[in-house]
Prior knowledge:
The chain contains four helices and four strands, in the order ααββαβαβ. The chain has 112 residues and is of the alpha+beta class.
Amino acid sequence: MNDLHGHKVGDRILCHLSELISVNIRDVDLLARWGGDEFVIILPELDLEQAKLACEKLKSLINSNPISCDLSVTCSFGVAQYHLGDTLNELFVRVDKLLYSAKQQGRNTVQT
């Protein structure tokens, strides 16, 4: 988006997405920008299937709420569950592989 529409538009998109997601997750959930155009959403007390359903709902919400009449975005989600003994790196390697898979499958998907 930055290359095509400029950094101002890219920043507007990031703000729009973060606000849209923030008001549509539970108070106990955590949304954080991971870097660039990547976000992390931590959904405590949800199992993998419940987290996948939550991300499917967020994806649909994002799809149905364009930034403006001529600008919309899609999002892909990699959903992984913490396993006892996981390091942060191990967990994020799994998520990264899922996001790579989402990109290969045409984006705008939720991968578990």
